[in-house]
Design a protein that fits this description.
Layout: H1 3-35, H2 38-64, H3 79-107, H4 116-143, H5 146-175, H6 180-207, H7 213-224, E1 231-239, E2 245-254, H8 259-277, E3 280-289, H9 294-307, E4 313-322, E5 327-334, H10 340-354, E6 359-366
Parallel strand pairs: 2-3, 5-6
Antiparallel strand pairs: 1-2, 4-5
Helix pairs in contact: 1-2, 1-4, 2-3, 2-5, 2-6, 3-6, 4-5, 5-6, 7-8
Amino acid sequence: MNEKEREKVIVQTSFIGILTNVILVAFKMTIGLISNSIAVILDAINNLSDALSSVVTIVGAKLAGKAPDKKHPFGYGRIEYLTSMIVSAIVLYAGITSVVESVKKIIHPAKAEYSFVSIIIIAVAVILKLLLGSFVKKRGKKVNSGALIASGSDALFDAVLSSSVLASALIYMFFGISLEAFVGVVISLFIVKAGVEMLVETLDDILGKRADKELVQKIKKLIAEEKEVRGAFDLVISNYGPNKNIASVHVELPDTMTVEEVDNLTRRLEEKIYNETAVILTGIGVYSYNTKNDEAAAIRNNVAKILSAHDYVLQMHGFYLDTKNKTMRFDTVLSFSVSFKEAMETMKKEIKAAYPDYEITITTDVDISEL
């Protein structure tokens, strides 16, 4: 699905959400005011925040769909994360406001009056919210829209909250027990919780989070399918909005390959990865491995054994030994739990003790994606 089609789905789905929520707001607010029910009024306000969220989602989709330009060569996709943050803030504000109003009603209770018609309308609202939530969430997953997925999840949760309003109304009608102010507090707290969770998730996207495990494994598998490649390492995926990923990677190749052969391979890999995953490989670095020296393999295995004694060393790769010039170089992937400086000093000291005649170069990599 291209960007235009994706934008169209997001906009159409959001419009359906706006229309449904506006209808629900009108009916619930009317019932709430007539019956003097704080729970129903807060439920209507929650639906209003959902409608506003859908408006923000449409604006975000339109802005994010703008073509890249000189000032923003990677496009405007990250705007969707900003609009998701605005949606989170709207939900959070609605929740906090609802808490305050519910507590006021507990301190100063007011008698509610429900009718059979109001009960029917609230029940229908529950069903509509369930249908809307399932629809929006499904469409959100289809186009990888965090805002739509969040809106769908929120709508499904709203159905649960509306059910609690319905239950409190029925309890009041049949038993004369007024629970609506307390139900309002519960609804409000859940709305606040949802807003905070949405905000945290969006902040993770903006700050940059660990690459998706399945995507990383798929890319490395595709690279490893090439017969010349012994391994793929240091995969870094930078995200510039939903479905907009740019990456770089190192591949380990035999030291007998020519520059022309490497050039053909890297171009083939770039095309293959893009076609299979839509990820743009902007850089492919190369590690060479020894093919003409049996001693190199033995030393490599021993160095790996020395490093494996440390839990913080997650991987060693890119090993190359020059027996003529007495040089040894390799990369290590270290966990975030260790000081890189101290780890480097320890590794060099131990390997130097085992191979005092060699000049040792160790590059430390961060554990940023699945190994």
